């Protein structure tokens, strides 16, 4: 432990969350980060769920170097060829009419822009999202974020309403045979929304797989029904694919599984593969109406050529290295291994997710399903000691939920090595008890 470093961190930094990982990281390459003691740590969270090409991918290194040297950042009203190339390429990955792009920097910012466009377009202001949602830390996005961070900051933006998160493992909505009755849950949730609405329902803003909410995959059919419910109320559907977009779940976009397209799509984390890039994509019709009504979203880094070049390279590498297929294939192996862990360990209650975005939920025992927050912390630390960085959901009652989202470029061997460490850590913690 380098006490000077941590003393200096205490003296100099604003703490923005629960705790820092107790390692000083000096270098990152491929699927690994390396600490000051020279220990390699397998990065099962792709940084902050972003570095889908691993760290320091040669194509990204070369793109950033040449863009910084030749065309980095411009006056916000200036356009450049990389921006159009990116917008065109993004549109080619999406169903029509999703063809108009706004290039930004962070996920919260993209959701902020999407919410503003929705309000202008519909003339209404109520935004519906899940009660375990995470859409970002700026005011509009945070008001639509129900999983954390609501207390102590004064009033959220009026008009944000919540739908129950369809958590198959924990939902009280059950059919007579005990299966998750998501249809009843959604109908009940929307009835509450309708009842609370001030008559100004504008949009549903949701993640296809809630990540910070505990890796909750929307049940097949859910998104289609939600789309219908939005259409019935002339609400827009905004999908936030910050974590699920760009191949991670085994399809280019998670919404493809359901054959349902959003009116507005927001992309961030994976689009920059670790660098700050985000985008809003919508139809020409929505864009036109917003423009006619004076849509304003001038930011310092809007349309930056550097960000555009990076995102274009990310899309190139995904296509060239066939990473969507790779995520699907590796995802199947990951599921098999996680299910084997569930069979072996009494404390592994649930396995869920898709492709290379999966989660396991630790419980005190399978029968009671009692959340095991403290156990989550101990397993995380046992994994770190053995060279694996795993991310627990840092929310009360959810501290036993691990998010597993390695880079899509991870080798089979590294994926298996990480899962072996997880297995060994679960055993070690059990033996300590
Ligand atoms: C689904 C989702 N949307 C939006 C955000 C916010 O993105 P950012 O932190 O880049 O603002 C996150 C971040 O965790 C996220 O997971």
TrEMBL record:
Keyword terms: Aminotransferase, Pyridoxal phosphate, Transferase
UniProt GO MF annotations: pyridoxal phosphate binding; transaminase activity
Name used for this protein in its record: Aspartate aminotransferase family protein
Pfam families recorded: Aminotran_3
Top-rank taxon: Bacteria
UniProt-listed InterPro entries: Aminotrans_3, Aminotrans_3_PPA_site, PyrdxlP-dep_Trfase, PyrdxlP-dep_Trfase_major, PyrdxlP-dep_Trfase_small
Family: Belongs to the class-III pyridoxal-phosphate-dependent aminotransferase family.
Swiss-Prot/TrEMBL cofactor(s): pyridoxal 5'-phosphate
SUPFAM superfamilies assigned: PLP-dependent transferases
């Amino acid at each position: 432990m380098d006490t000077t470093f941590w003393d200096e961190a205490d003296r100099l930094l604003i703490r923005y969350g629960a705790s820092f990982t107790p390692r000083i990281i000096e270098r990152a390459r491929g699927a690994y980060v390396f600490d000051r003691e020279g220990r390699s740590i397998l990065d099962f969270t792709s940084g902050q769920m972003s570095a889908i090409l691993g760290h320091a991918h040669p194509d990204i290194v070369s793109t950033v170097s040449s863009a910084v040297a030749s065309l980095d950042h411009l006056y916000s009203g200036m356009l450049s060829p990389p921006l159009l190339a990116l917008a065109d390429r993004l549109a080619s990955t999406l169903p029509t009419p999703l063809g108009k792009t706004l290039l930004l920097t962070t996920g919260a910012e993209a959701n902020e822009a999407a919410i503003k466009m929705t309000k202008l377009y519909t003339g209404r202001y109520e935004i519906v999202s899940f009660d375990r949602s995470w859409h970002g830390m700026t005011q509009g996005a945070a008001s639509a974020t129900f999983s954390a961070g609501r207390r102590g900051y004064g009033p959220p933006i009026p008009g944000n309403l919540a739908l129950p998160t369809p958590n198959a493992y924990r939902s009280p909505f059950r059919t007579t045979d005990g299966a998750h009755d998501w249809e009843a849950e959604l109908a009940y949730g929307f009835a509450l929304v309708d009842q609370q609405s001030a008559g100004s329902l504008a949009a549903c803003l949701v993640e296809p797989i809630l990540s910070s909410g505990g890796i909750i995959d929307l049940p097949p059919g859910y998104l289609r029904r939600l789309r219908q419910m939005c259409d019935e109320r002339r609400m827009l559907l905004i999908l936030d694919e910050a974590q699920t977009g760009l191949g991670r779940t085994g399809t280019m976009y998670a919404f493809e599984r359901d054959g349902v397209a959003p009116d507005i799509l927001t992309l961030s984390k994976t689009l920059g593969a670790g660098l700050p890039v985000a985008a809003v994509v919508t139809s020409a019709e929505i864009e036109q109406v917003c423009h006619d009504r004076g849509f304003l979203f001038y930011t310092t880094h809007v349309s930056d050529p550097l960000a555009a070049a990076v995102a274009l390279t990310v899309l190139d590498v995904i296509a060239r290295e066939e990473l969507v297929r790779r995520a699907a294939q590796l995802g199947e192996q990951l599921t098999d291994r996680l299910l084997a862990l569930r069979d072996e360990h009494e404390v592994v209650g649930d396995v869920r997710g898709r492709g290379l975005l999966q989660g396991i939920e630790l419980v005190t025992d399978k029968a009671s399903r009692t959340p095991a927050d403290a156990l989550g912390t101990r397993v995380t630390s046992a994994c770190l000691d053995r060279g694996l960085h795993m991310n627990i959901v840092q929310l009360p009652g959810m501290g036993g939920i691990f998010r597993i989202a390695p880079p899509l470029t991870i080798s089979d061997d590294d994926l298996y090595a990480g899962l072996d460490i997880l297995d060994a850590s679960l055993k070690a913690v059990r033996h300590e008890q």
